[in-house]
Specification:
Layout (H helix, E strand, L loop, with lengths): L5 H36 L9 H27 L4 H12 L2 H27 L1 H4 L5 H11 L6 H4 L2 H26 L5 H18 L1
């Protein structure tokens, strides 16, 4: 697994923190854009929409993962001094402190971004009134192949399957997000994933 002692981990930690910079520049740039749009077009902006997941569910998930991993390690190695073993496991092997220093700012920032995104998306009718809906629907039907599948997708079974697949995507998506947020293994790839995650939301919707 590798330890986290010495200058190597110190340099890696600094690099991971620096790699967070692009993420925060994009995130807060988008938030400022949403604030300006909300003020200009007079639609509400709520930054607390996703607090329950990222500030409650995510910490609970992290605690379960850490405790579960610690129990597995205790059973596997059965140390003579379990508390000393756990201290070394958390500080030397798992680098818990470094992971928190790198990942916690990202976890705290995500509910702000996603709340701004959802509020902005809900405010689109204030920026583009409903008169444009027929035109946009025709454009969507022209460029999208979904209309060809409409007879199949109208069935109840197909709708239930699509709904189940859509809901299953969320826990997978956010679990990977949390794993990468606290990862120290490859900070460059980690930063690329975090930035791609942001861009996919507000460029693709």
């Amino acid at each position: 697994m590798g330890g986290c002692d010495g200058a190597m981990i110190s340099g890696r930690l600094r690099f991971c923190r620096d790699a967070n910079l692009a993420f925060f520049v994009i995130l807060f740039g988008y938030v400022i854009f949403c604030v300006a749009a909300a003020a200009l077009f007079q639609f509400p902006l709520n930054f607390r929409l996703y607090n329950s997941f990222f500030l409650v569910t995510a910490p609970l998930l992290a605690i379960v993962v850490v405790i579960g991993g610690a129990l597995i390690a205790l059973v596997r190695y059965f140390p003579d001094r379990p508390f000393l073993f756990l201290r070394d496991l958390f500080t030397t092997q798992w680098c818990i402190g470094d992971r928190i220093a790198v990942g916690l700012p990202i976890v705290l920032a995500y509910p702000i971004f996603l709340s701004a995104f959802t509020s902005f998306k809900a405010g689109i009718p204030a920026m583009v009134p409903f008169y444009a809906d027929p035109w946009l629907s025709r454009i969507d039907a022209f460029v999208s192949p979904v209309s060809l599948l409409e007879p199949v997708l109208q069935s109840d079974a197909a709708l239930r399957l699509l709904d189940a697949l859509y809901l299953a995507w969320f826990p997978i998506n956010y679990t990977i997000l949390l794993i990468t947020a606290f990862s120290l293994k490859d900070c460059r790839s980690r930063s690329q994933y975090q930035v791609a995650f942001l861009l996919s939301w507000f460029l693709l919707g």
